[in-house]
Amino acid sequence: MPAKTTAPGVHTLNALMEEGEDYLLDVIRIWHRMRHADPGSERYFDLMADLSVAAIVAKSRMESVMSEIDAITEDMPDDD
User: Fold this and answer.
1) Which pLDDT does position 14 carry in this prediction?
2) What pLDDT was estimated at residue 15?
3) How far apart are CA 76 and CA 6, in angstroms?
4) Which tens digits make up the pLDDT trace of 23-65?
5) Measuring CA to CA, which residue among 79, 72, 78, 80 is closest to residue 5?
6) Could you give the maximum distance between any two Cα atoms of the chain, in Å?
7) Which long-range contacts (CB under 8 A, 24 or more apart) does 55-63 make?
8) Considering Cα of 12, then 20, then 22, then 2, what sign does the dihedral take?
9) Among 7-11, 64-68, 69-73, where is mean pLDDT lowest?
10) What local confidence, expressed as pLDDT, does residue 80 receive?
11) Confidence tier at 11 by pLDDT (50, 70, 90)
12) DSSP secondary structure code for residue 8 in this structure
């Protein structure tokens, strides 16, 4: 019966990962732009600020993913 008890959690996990993927891709996109900016330039520092914000948001989303994984595994019956 674990499939029935975890199915909503799995759907939630999938949705969180889909959303989280977008935020992680934002981090990567900003990093790619930073690599093409001159270190120390105004553009570089602007992108660094953008990267910081994107990383904070991505971290928050991944924490939600981890919480959902914990909830799913807690709902699973013991093998004993």
Assistant:
1) 87
2) 87
3) 7
4) 999 999 999 999 999 999 999 999 999 999 999 999 999 998 8
5) 72
6) 60
7) 55/27, 57/23, 57/26, 58/20, 58/23, 58/24, 58/26, 58/27, 61/16, 61/19, 61/20, 61/23, 62/20, 62/24
8) negative
9) 7-11
10) 60
11) confident
12) H
* DSSP conformation letters of 9-77: HHHHHHHHHHHHHHHHHHHHHHHHHHHHSPTTSHHHHHHHHHHHHHHHHHHHHHHHHHHHHHHHHHHSP
Which among 18, 21, 79, 24 is positioned nearest to 54, based on CA atoms? 24
H-helix or E-strand containing 4?
A: helix 2-36
CA 53 – CA 47 distance, rounded (Å): 10
Which residue is associated with the tokens 């990567």?
A: 28
